[in-house]
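Figure 2 data, in text form.
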Amino acid sequence: MQTFMNFLEKYLSMPMAKLSEQRHLRAIRDGVVSSLPFIIVGSMFLIVAFPPVPESTALYQWAQAHAFEILIPYRMTMFIMSLYITFGIGYNLAKSYKLDPLSGGQIAVASFLLTLTPIALDKVGFVLPMANLGGHGLFMAMIVSIFSVEIMRFCKTRNITIKMPEQVPPSVARSFEALIPVAFVVVFMTLITVVLGIDVHSLVDQAVSPIVKAGDTLFGVLLPVFLIGFFWSFGIHGISVIGAVARPLWEKYLGANAEAVAAGSPIPHVAPETFFQWFVWIGGSGATLGLVLAMLFFSKSSYLKALGKTTLVPSIFNINEPVIFGTPIVLNPMLIIPFIFIPLITTTISYFATTLGFISPTYVMAPWTLPAPIGAYLSTGGDWRAIVLVLVNIAISFVIYIPFFKMYDQKLLEEEKAQTEENKETHSNEPNLA
């Protein structure tokens, strides 16, 4: 077993951990994460516009009458998430290269906006189509952000910049340093989208459509769940590794679901990140709230009994590093098996519950530190059945963890008894100096 674990760590987990720290993937991850406050706050206005109350109530009628005004904050935040993410990616990638991060973010935004074709309207002037500013344009945002900063880096390393005298304030000097890369990016993107008339968003959509479709299948949701649990079992932050690749896709699903709700259309996707957050990783990766409950009810060893009491509150709020490293689950064959496979079971149940219409798909980004029943209720726009599913999944994880936990608990209990006997023998052999 240990040989197999060493083999996996050497040839799979370590290379994947290095991949998660790759410069461009890290910039994408940090750029997406930087937009979360706007996504969370913006998505809450969807609940206000479509309150979880019967349609006959006065509150629902008022919300529908004022839906246009209520949804304006949503359309200026979550609905155009790609714009915020573009700046975040450009900023973080430039920072990793030790370039001016502000210039990196700005040049990325300029490049992304130039992928859109303004529309002329009578009595209004030119307007930008907003559809590609949301989750739909996320992959394009990643591409142009990386392209723009790489042009900026190329000009910097080849000294293709305008250098100002030392007496010039640094902020002014940085502006002139960015002048040539900005000019190149603006001219190049204008040539592509305006002169040649190429719809780059359609090209990217065609290229990534197989990935988008696959990610919303049962296999597509089970694969990241398995890999995240697998990496955590080695002490590697699974969300950081897999999330760097999968989170942009999850955000695209979330944005599309929110747009569908705002438009009154059927919700298209099953598996935004909120699906995993509230129905799979209950208490954290590995659905460890069930393990903590097992500690509280069945612990015989003093260590696990104390650990269960200590980690209950953090687990309720989805913070489970104390459980993963304190139990420990890391490199622990007795607990790795349920830690990896319980989420696969709850994922399958939740996937079919959603696709068969037993619960509504998620479309609201609720803060991840909420207790799971509350987060699930909010993320589905107030579907009470989501609470039931969360409780069912907690019960499943609790029941499956019990036999594995009891084996580990018995092992620790025997070690504690042996340590107690050893201490007694040590004290009995000490000389009596009285």
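Caption note: The chain has a mean pLDDT of 86.
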